[in-house]
Design goal:
By secondary structure, this protein is of the alpha+beta class. The protein folds into three domains: 59-111 and 237-288 and 351-445, L,D-transpeptidase catalytic domain-like; 134-213, PGBD-like superfamily/PGBD (Muramoyl-pentapeptide Carboxypeptidase, domain 1, Orthogonal Bundle), CATH 1.10.101; 293-348. It is built from twelve helices and 17 strands. The protein has an eight-stranded mixed β-barrel. Strands 7-10-8-9 form a four-stranded antiparallel β-sheet. It has a two-stranded antiparallel ribbon with strand order 16-17. The radius of gyration is 26 Å and the shape is globular.
Length: 469
């Protein structure tokens, strides 16, 4: 142990020399590496043989570039089409790498394919034992607590079959009465949550459709997603971000280990978030939002016509084709259209900015990216398809510190300190991080709960044909 302590002290003494602060101009922020304070020896778990616990850090130095302008054309209500003056920080890797300590807590390993294979066997066994599954006609009517109707007997049988409504020793429960009890309401709420329906405990048309999904149909859906995982898993290596659109979740991954997960908001059906792969190349702090014309006409124009001061009150500026700022009242908003819009509308950084405090630039022709949002209340909804294509994050600061691991910005306090200046700056990633937008409609959660999505973009139908299922 003495030689280990000496070795650690020697490493720290080297770090003290390598990571000395340098002086730069006041307008430049340098992404300096943060030296480790503790070396933790990873402990291996006998249940985690699929995970490689060996990690290697990226120590960094910085090369500062001058501020530049960048134009992005985004067809998203949270999109950007602006000339953005910003400090650009390039994070470069040092030649002499210092191993970064890694505290390995054995969090859940993302092994969806293996979990789905187990679930598949369970549903196949259920289908063999069940025979013809109970069903009823879904009508535009809802059933709630204290209601009484014969169809509730079938609903109880369906919930019982799937393990949501347990039969007790009371004879009334064993017979599955037609009365909507508190026990049924609780079962319905849990069933709704596991099918991305708002858990209001009311059996309406959407809940009925989900209840009518037979074990055989669930088996087919599981098989479809197993095929999707087989295609996807070959690419999932190293450090990457996985956004699963149908379950409204983002995962920051290191091989098969989840470092971070958080809820997201994805594109509505009429403005879908595309399913594709790209690279994250920079993190922008205090981004401005240049409103695309299509989004302005679809989403903002009606608000401007109702309230002439809407734009100025919300932090927007309007410039004409010469780049001159004009007042809201000087524009004849009744005569603008998709084909006639000689203005640029831009929302400045601030607490009301549609992009929040952080944006993650992704290299793609669709101009899709990840960003924060001031509309935090939307994350209370279980189905979150509200955007126009880009993906909104509940906790962008957490993803930023993860993406900037190895720099001083992986410290939440340092990151918040930089954001609080109000200056727009882009931190360039030395190593781009792959981002996979996926469409997995059956997902197994940490506690083994199976989540069935309702196929928000109707892509299951396409892939059933593609995989001949």
């Amino acid at each position: 142990m003495k030689w280990l302590r000496k070795k650690i002290l020697f490493i720290f003494s080297l770090l003290g020399f390598v990571f000395q602060e340098q002086s730069f101009a006041e307008t430049v922020v340098v992404a300096e590496p943060t030296p480790p304070s503790v070396i933790t020896i990873p402990k291996l778990s006998s249940t985690s043989s699929a995970v490689d616990t060996q990690s290697q850090s990226t120590s960094t130095s910085t090369a500062v570039q001058t501020a530049s302008t960048k134009e992005q054309n985004d067809e998203d209500e949270d999109g950007e089409n602006s000339l953005e003056a910003q400090t650009v920080i390039s994070v470069e890797e040092e030649k002499d790498k210092v191993p970064e300590p890694t505290a390995v807590d054995m969090r859940v390993v993302l092994a969806q394919k293996e979990k789905l294979e187990v679930i598949l066997k369970e549903y196949e066994s259920l289908a063999d034992k069940t025979g013809k599954a109970p069903q009823w006609t879904c009508i535009n009517h809802s059933f709630r607590i204290k209601d009484q109707d014969p169809v509730l007997v079938t609903a109880k049988k369906q919930l019982h079959l799937l393990g949501f409504f347990a039969a007790s020793k009371k004879a009334v429960d064993l017979k599955f009465t037609s009365f909507f009890s508190k026990k049924l309401e609780a079962a319905v709420k849990e069933f709704q949550r596991r099918h991305f329906l708002e858990p209001d405990g009311v059996i309406g048309r959407k809940t009925c459709i989900a209840l009518n999904m037979t074990p055989d149909e669930r088996i087919r859906k599981i098989k479809l997603n197993l095929e999707r995982w087989k295609e996807l898993e070959k690419s999932l290596q190293g450090k990457y971000v996985l956004v699963n659109v149908p379950t409204y979740k983002l995962y920051a991954m290191e091989d098969l280990k989840i470092d971070l997960t958080q809820p997201v908001i994805v594109g509505m059906k009429s403005r879908e978030t595309p399913i594709f792969t790209c690279n994250m190349n920079s993190v922008v702090l205090n981004p401005a939002w240049g409103v695309p014309v299509t989004i302005f006409i679809k989403d903002k124009l009606s608000k401007v016509l109702k309230d002439p001061e809407y734009l100025s009150k919300s932090g927007f500026t309007v410039t004409d084709h010469d780049g001159e700022i004009v007042t809201d009242s000087s524009v004849d908003w009744k005569h603008v259209s998709l084909h006639h819009f000689p203005y640029t509308v831009r929302q400045m950084p601030g607490e009301n900015n549609a992009l929040g405090a952080i944006k993650f630039n992704l290299d793609n022709k669709e101009a899709i990216y990840l960003h924060g949002t001031p509309q935090k209340n939307l994350f209370h909804r279980i189905a979150r398809s509200f955007s126009s294509g880009c993906v909104r994050l509940e906790a962008p600061q957490k993803l930023a510190t993860w993406a900037l691991k190895g720099t001083k910005y992986d410290n939440p306090e340092k990151l918040e300190e930089k954001i609080s200046t109000g200056d727009t700056s882009a931190i360039l990633l030395k190593h781009p991080i792959p981002v996979y937008f996926t469409y997995i409609t059956v997902w197994v959660e940490r506690k083994g709960e199976v989540m069935f999505s309702d196929d928000p973009y109707d892509l299951d139908k396409q892939d059933y044909a593609r995989f001949n299922l």
